[in-house]
Specification:
By secondary structure, the chain is an alpha/beta fold. The chain contains six helices and nine strands. A five-stranded parallel beta sheet has the order 6-7-8-3-9, with helices on both faces. A four-stranded antiparallel beta sheet has the order 2-1-4-5, with helices on one face. The longest helix is centred in the C-terminal third of the chain and has 16 residues. The chain is globular, with a radius of gyration of 17 Å. The model has no long low-confidence stretch (mean pLDDT 95).
Length: 208
């Protein structure tokens, strides 16, 4: 089972201090809500947890089956869904995932892609160009991409953004499956009901 250890992580931009001394450990099967006001640093913390942003201080360690994941391959073990991530509009949903599967050198890519698209409710539209999708359907493509490799750590930034009622049910199912599979889930949200579904809460304002 995976474990995420965050040790004394802090981040600032010039004189702007977002957070400092963020420290916690998440064992497999645990969900964490990261809450705080807009601009407080929730998205920044998730990017640090994803391994795509280096903090000013502190360390983030993801262990899988007891072995620490090297920093250079850390992002390959993380699924990230966020409003600021983009998909390729000129490609179909399937082609977007095929590109990702090639870059990650995934085995059994075709079956993984089909399963991910079905899981997020895009079966039947997978061959259509993403440019023809609604904002909610584009959000589903991002979920399919994040789930493609069954990541030990899943990060959801504003998970309900642009989704309708059926999309929200899909997110609930994704969150429940991630936890029941013994993996890790971190959710950045301003919505009390989303935060309440998590086991623990980290308020950014408490770490300044």
């Amino acid at each position: 089972m995976p474990t995420l250890t965050v040790d004394d992580v802090g981040q600032r931009y010039g004189q702007l201090l977002l957070f400092r001394h963020v420290t916690f450990t998440l064992p497999g099967g645990t969900t964490l809500a990261v809450t705080g006001a807009n601009g407080s640093g929730k998205s920044t913390l998730l990017r640090i947890l994803a391994g795509v942003l280096t903090p000013k201080k502190g360390d983030v360690t993801l262990q899988v089956d007891g072995d620490p994941i090297p920093r250079e391959t850390h992002p390959l073990h993380v699924g990230l869904v966020a409003p600021y991530l983009n998909v390729y509009d000129d490609l179909s949903a399937r082609e977007n995932l095929q590109f990702l599967a090639r870059t990650r050198r995934l085995d059994d890519a075709a079956s993984r892609i089909s399963a991910a698209l079905k899981r997020v409710g895009l079966a039947g539209r997978e061959a259509d160009r993403v440019a023809t999708y609604s904002s909610g359907m584009k959000a589903r493509v991002k979920y399919a991409a994040a789930l493609l490799d069954a990541p030990p750590l899943l990060l959801l930034d504003e998970p309900s953004a642009n989704l309708d009622a059926a999309g929200l049910d899909m997110v609930d199912t994704v969150m429940e499956h991630q936890q029941s599979a013994g993996r890790l889930l971190v959710v950045a949200t301003n919505l009390p009901d989303e935060a309440a579904r998590c086991d623990r809460e980290l308020r950014i304002e408490d770490n300044r």
